[in-house]
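Before going further, learn to read the protein records used in this course. The integers have meaning only within a learned vocabulary of local backbone shapes. To see the layout at work, look at the sequence and tokens printed below.
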Amino acid sequence: MRTQPQVRHLPMWPMWSLAWLLPLCLLLGGRDFAWMIAAVPMTAHLVASRPIRTPPGFALWLLFVVWMSASVIQIDTAGRLLGFCFRALLYLSATVILLYAYNLALRGLSWHRVAGALTALWVVVVVGGYLGVLLPDVVLTTPVAQVVPPGLASNEVIAEMITPAFAQQGGEDLGVPSRPSAPFAYTNNWGVAYSLLLPFVFVFFSGLPRGSWRRLLVTLAVAASLVPALLTLNRGMFLALGVGLGYVGIRLALRGSGAGIAALGVLVAVGLFAVTATPVGDLLQQRLDSSSTNETRLSVYEQAVEGTVASPLFGQGAPRPAISPGEPAVGTQGQFWMVLFSHGFPGAAFFVVWLLVGCLLSARPPTTSGLWLHAVLVMALIEVFYYGFLGAGLTVVMIAAGLSACAAHVHQRSTKAPAINGIVDGVPA
């Protein structure tokens, strides 16, 4: 009788490494390399524990990666080639993280443990936000900054990486001198990471024993996180969180989950109280009424469309300077626009359809934890049009997509699913 080969379990520590690699790389001067470094042991463990399963819809993502790589033919300078290679490595790292999360869950690891690792990453983001609030003028000089040639150090992206600031300056027109951004370069990056990680915090919370001190600690941490979150004045983050929380609330109501709705109601009430009881509400209204960022974004978006029409198949290969010197580079101000402008209409279609398919595949989760992971993808579909995802945002989306795809696999093909050792909130343990 032929025996099935034993499938090796994948270790959890590479997921935990995301939480400590980010601050370590920040201090050393290579913040954005954290995701690539984390993908190295994941790749090694995946290869060593073959077969490697691919989630549904993976072919769409693979098509995007191939098309993105082919658009290198549009690169015309050494500097743009360097940036292209850097972004390509981030996409490849995200691919590895997607496969690792999916195979990790397929082999029986609890979502609660994965959510614990991402909750630790969320804590790093919140601590960075507090550094931006309390020490807004601090700019670190990292070890890498001491050895980088002046020519490279003058590059804006490299300069932000080797001399990271705790807060993004230049918010006077918003009514504040600065907004928290650490451990990222921009406040918008902070908002993406915070909003997309928060559902993982709720998944982690749901798996903790009722009445435990850890539940109380997580509750206090979520309440405390509202301080830097509100002070970012990130309209897009608030919009995505509002849609995500409202969506989950409606789904819970349809399921008749009174406890879930009550907990969500308390969270929303605390958030609304914080907005109305502090100057944040007035600052947000001021930003909506008088901020010039809407016009700037619209101009950059229009230039992105024009540039893509001029090169519809492979785009421009990389972001390019805007017509007006004071405007951000064309192909920034949103992951969709970066993909569209840099990799053409087919690249943008592959990226958005892959995200949409992942969202649809996770739309019928059997558990509340699965619903929260589905909410990550719902919020990503909103934020992709005005926030950049490369790095933390795409990493979190990949993990949510991988775990959700595993749930769909187990739910729909239970006869072929791997053995499950236990249940935590209805998910593999």
Observations:
- The longest helix spans residues 78-106.
- The two ends are 30 Å apart (CA to CA).
